[in-house]
Amino acid sequence: MPDAKQMSGIPRPVTDLPDGAISVRLVRGDLSNNITNHPVELHVGSKVVTVNTDDTGRAQFDTLTPGATVKAFADVAGERLESQEFPVPEKGGVRMLLVATDTSKGPATTPDAPPISGQVVIGNQSRIVIEPGDETVRVFYLLDIENTARAPVNTATPFVFELPAGARNAAIMQGSSPVARVSGLRVTVAGPFPPGPTFVQSAYELSADRGSIEIAQTFPAGVEQLIVIVKKVGATTLSSRQLPNQREMAAEGETFIAGTGGTVAAGQPIDLAVGGFPHHSAAPRTIALLLAVGIALAGVWAGSRPNTDDAALAAERKRLIARREKLFAELVRLENDHRSGRVPDRRYEQRREELFAVLEQVYGALDNQDPGNEPTDRAGLAA
């Protein structure tokens, strides 16, 4: 049986309650220790409804408005208990536990106590943070792995997960537990897990030259509440069927999209799509490379032609010279646009490099022909 604390505050839809009813059971330590005649608060928007628990430790709230956002609270001997925030269902009701600490069992065992078999969960303080950049998106997993037992726990299977395909520069961030490590795309957290939280913060990058990314991530433990935060750059959007609640918020002069959802079972994929952020098209670079290859092939072909085909050679040379002049004109226009501020530095440097590469190919093709027809002085290109 899992520790009751692992189930505390998690809403569970049921059909054995009236429509719109919520039942909160209050226990101390485990399911056999009900807390009776104790007040439980249900926050419905700005309104607070209080009901005392009955002989079975349950406080039931009836005839709530479907769709209203609610959250349950209880204070037991100074320990503040709270549930996840969730909407009132239109059909059926919701049951949940609020579990207080049983102080009669004494403190948790020391770190060197013998470990027991058990489970851990990814606590509701965990976050997935996504920051779009310049053709690259950085992704951070800030995981609060909780062991609510009173002894170190060895999980039935190792705590290991694979990062999404295409991830690169994966790393464990400073401040993480020393038992966490990354190898390639694999993140491993070695057990046993001590009582309380084990913090693991990993990061990686994804290519985003199309202005969008998709992430499918599974974890080896259940997620108590899925929370995703995306830095908004331009018209950035966050899409996921697992994040029904989204809102924008400002922090330190920047805007973020905060998405929240419910629990995610161990091994269930978390599917995220982020799009709409600025990016640079790879088309100009591809076109430049294709032109360079074409010009190089044309130069080789022209240089290997028999000398008897003078008319064809002259026509090819004329075409190459026209191409060279057009490239020079584009280079001059690029320089003027950059000086006037119409072209940003990064785009200017990229396009200038592409033009120089193609010009080198043009000069190479001209050099393969008879240099006596027209000099191919490269001093201007070097300047």
Note down, in words, how this protein is organized.
This protein has helices spanning 283-304, 310-339, 345-367, 379-382; strands at 12-14, 22-28, 39-44, 47-52, 58-61, 69-76, 79-82, 86-87, 93-100, 116-118, 121-122, 127-132, 136-147, 153-155, 159-162, 168-172, 180-183, 186-189, 196-207, 212-217, 227-231, 237-239, 245-251, 254-260, 270-275. With 383 residues, it is α+β, with helices and mostly antiparallel strands. It has three domains: 4-105, Carboxypeptidase-like, regulatory domain (Immunoglobulin-like, Sandwich); 116-275, Immunoglobulin-like, CATH 2.60.40; 283-382. Strands 11, 12, 13, 16, 19, 21, 23 and 24 form an eight-stranded mixed β-sheet that branches. Strand 3 and strand 4 (47-52) form a beta hairpin. Helix 1 runs parallel beside helix 3 (345-367). The termini are far apart.
Could you give a quick summary of the protein structure above?
With 383 residues, this protein is of the alpha+beta class.
Secondary structure topology:
Elements lengths: L11 E3 L7 E7 L10 E6 L2 E6 L5 E4 L7 E8 L2 E4 L3 E2 L5 E8 L15 E3 L2 E2 L4 E6 L3 E12 L5 E3 L3 E4 L5 E5 L7 E4 L2 E4 L6 E12 L4 E6 L9 E5 L5 E3 L5 E7 L2 E7 L9 E6 L7 H22 L5 H30 L5 H23 L11 H4 L1
Parallel strand pairs: 2-9, 10-14, 12-21
Antiparallel strand pairs: 1-9, 2-5, 3-4, 3-6, 6-7, 6-8, 11-13, 12-13, 13-19, 15-18, 16-19, 17-18, 20-25, 21-24, 22-25, 23-24
Helix pairs in contact: 1-3, 2-3
